[in-house]
Recover the amino acids of this structure.
């Protein structure tokens, strides 16, 4: 009797696994990312640029304060005093990454590389939040504690899990990567 139940159980979940193989996990991870993080990162990126179309090309002091807090403080939060090299390129890359990487992930374009880049972005963001933005112990939280809602340890662990799924499994068949893969063929991948 138990072996029959085990066979039914295994057969049922193998059928689901076969039906979703190659398309569901990547799509679900990308939709989860879009639902939870796309607007979060875009809103954050918008605080780093000036107004209007030209603002895209001129990060504000807010960008420096968020990405390189000690540098912004060292130069009294005056963007005109901050040397472009080496700080400008860091701020530009960080700002544009916050716009582009989430968009690429949601579209499924260069997904594995974009998810890896976003993973690194979140690690750097976490380091800056803890070391320079004064995140307290409650905000930082701890792994394996009884409180599951810390903004850094708990939430960001879930964020990076979605990204790890995309790095390891890819975006799935419903993605720009899959379309490009069909057009280019195996030799071009």
């Amino acid at each position: 009797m138990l072996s029959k139940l085990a066979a039914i159980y295994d057969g049922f979940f193998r059928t689901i696994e076969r039906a979703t193989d190659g398309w569901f996990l990547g799509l679900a991870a990308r939709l989860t990312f879009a639902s939870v993080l796309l607007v979060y990162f875009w809103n954050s990126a918008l605080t780093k640029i000036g107004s209007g179309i030209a603002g895209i090309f001129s990060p504000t002091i807010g960008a420096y304060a968020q990405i390189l807090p000690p540098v912004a403080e060292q130069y009294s939060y005056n963007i005109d005093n901050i040397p472009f090299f080496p700080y400008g390129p860091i701020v530009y890359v960080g700002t544009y990454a916050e716009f582009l990487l989430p968009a690429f992930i949601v579209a499924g374009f260069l997904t594995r590389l974009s998810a890896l880049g976003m993973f690194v972005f979140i690690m750097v963001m976490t380091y800056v939040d803890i070391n320079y933005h004064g995140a307290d112990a409650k905000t930082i939280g701890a792994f394996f504690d009884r409180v599951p809602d810390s903004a850094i340890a708990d939430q960001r662990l879930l964020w990076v899990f979605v990204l790890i799924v995309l790095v390891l499994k890819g975006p799935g068949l419903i993605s720009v990567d899959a379309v490009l893969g069909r057009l280019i063929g195996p030799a071009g991948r």
